Amino acid sequence: MKEYQKAISAVMQQSPVEHNKTIPEALQEVHPKQLFDEMPAMLEDCRAIQEQVLEEILLLAQGSAYAREHQLEGVRTLEQWRNAAQISTYDDYRPYIEAEMDGREKQLYAGKTALFIATTGSTGRVKYFLESNAGNAAKQNIMTVRGLYMSELLPVTLDMNAKNLTISNYAPVASRDDGKLVVRASGQTARNMRKKTGTMNLLPVEFWESPGISARDRDYMMGVYTLAEVRFSKVFCNNVIHFGRILDRIVLEGGQMIEDIRTGRFSVSLTPEVRERLAFTLPPNPARADALQAVYDRKNCLITCPDDIAEIWPQFSMISCWLSSTVGRDAREVLRRLPSYIKCFDMGYGASESKLNIPTKLASATGVAAPFSCFYEFLPLDGGKPLCMWEVEAGKHYELLITTYSGLYRYNMQDIVRVDGFIGNTPNMIFCGKSGEYLLKDNQKIYGYQFADLIYQAERKYHVEFDIMQVAVENGEYSYVLESKQSVDYAAVKKDLDTWSRQLYGIESGQIYVMKHTYKNSLFDGLTREDRGACGIKLPVVLQRIPAQEQIAQIIK
């Protein structure tokens, strides 16, 4: 019997009354290398694992306010689940989460809440989620296995002398009166990584935990820290466009950054308390400043091409970031600025609610679902009942539903995923876009990802890349919003796009808005705040209004 099977079997043999160890917590006790080595067996065994995970989650739900009020009391098997469970969204959980945060326990599950997660996500509105110990362990298990796949392909991740630039959101952890933490979802993974990797990180903990620093000043300071470290080797960042924006600051303000490195003092506005707290994190380094100045003096700029990056950071060799959907387009834009030898590994598909897949290959936006993490269901876009992971078809698109150890039950992520084949019996998934982004035409939904697919087809035909691709919808009509740094025959592109969309959907665009090169950056500027950088932002595909006139360079009818 495999070690994962022994761990799960021991958990499932506990009596309901004495159920004090969960599957995710038991799997944490399996040596990580053993868990990694047994992944092929787990992916073959996905149905059995998924049924055991669902059975345990339903056991832990018994006695909760949600289970009582949603007819889940006594539901234990998959068949019972399929007959009883209703598809849910965040608003269904809001009153229970608020009650739990007010101190009324056992709202979504019978166990204790370990911490609260705050997120703005793609909506821009703050939402809170509960996190149980089991739910937190489930996320950590995925991160452990992801890390092992990454290190197998990129051994530099284990090099203790190769420094990490880990970019996350900035809000410090807050503590409630009862001692429970409230954390930013997008920063929690980075905090856990920083704890594990310690001195491998070139950005100090004090930098992340210091309040009152604007997003713009933080980006500048990250540029200084990174320039100061010749051993900089790796970037970890959800949306790597944030690293691109830091490179932009180095291009524009590299001379001043060199002076900051020479003197050991940041030339930004900081409170005396924060400046004192950070003083030891940037010691004066005249030797590094001299080396950078020599690069700067040749061209009056630190970075003009990929070769300059290779000279400044000779050990820089890998990036881990999101590679799917709109963020994949952002990653492509940044990667073409870098030396071609830099390798890329997807950060993995996930959200505040759960971590959802495990990338297994370099430069691929696809990852395999983790059958030991949560219970997955797939709602066909063309109608029908939710399907289990062993029932889906390769190449099909679905809306993803999850049931988690932290009290979400048949929760609609409102994400569209495509099944990109299988590993064993477990589907590979790629995130395609949000199901709420669509054009409604004659009772037909044309989703944002479908418009994006048309643009990718045009890119392949014309050998161009669009750094941003959006669709502006107004009065039931749509127009493309495109930005590219290359020379593009937009009239020919529009003709082909309209031909293809007529054939597929019976529609055609009004016009193409060709955007100025400042447009995309202005969108990120408008969405960043002191506690939220570009690293956590996904730009929408479907817009409900036409962009501002001053950002439009040309209109192609």
Index terms:
globular; 7-stranded antiparallel beta sheet; 5-stranded mixed beta sheet; 20% strand; GMP Synthetase, Chain A, domain 3; alpha/beta; 557 residues; 22 strands; 3 domains
Task: Describe this entry's structure for a reader.
The structure is a single chain. Helix content is 40%, strand content 20%. The protein contains 20 helices and 22 strands. It is globular and about 70 Å long. By secondary structure, the chain is of the alpha/beta class. The strands form five sheets. The protein has a seven-stranded antiparallel beta sheet with strand order 9-10-15-14-13-11-12. Helix 13 (241-263) crosses helix 15 and helix 18 (448-462) crosses helix 19 (490-505). Helix 17 (325-335) links the parallel strand 7 (318-321) and strand 8 (343-346). It has three domains: 3-136 and 349-434, no CATH class; 155-316, no CATH class; 438-556, GMP Synthetase, Chain A, domain 3, CATH 3.30.300.30.
Q: What are the SSEs and their pairings?
A:
Layout: H1 3-12, H2 23-28, H3 32-37, H4 39-44, H5 46-61, H6 65-69, H7 78-84, H8 90-101, E1 113-119, E2 127-132, H9 133-153, E3 163-167, E4 174-175, E5 181-184, H10 185-197, H11 205-209, H12 215-228, E6 232-237, H13 241-263, H14 272-278, H15 286-299, H16 306-312, E7 318-321, H17 325-335, E8 343-346, E9 357-359, E10 367-369, E11 375-380, E12 387-388, E13 397-403, E14 411-423, E15 426-434, E16 438-441, E17 444-447, H18 448-462, E18 468-474, E19 477-483, H19 490-505, E20 512-515, H20 519-527, E21 542-543, E22 552-556
Parallel strand pairs: 1-5, 3-6, 6-7, 7-8, 18-21, 19-20
Antiparallel strand pairs: 1-2, 4-5, 9-10, 10-15, 11-12, 11-13, 13-14, 14-15, 16-17, 18-19, 20-22
Helix pairs in contact: 12-13, 13-15, 18-19
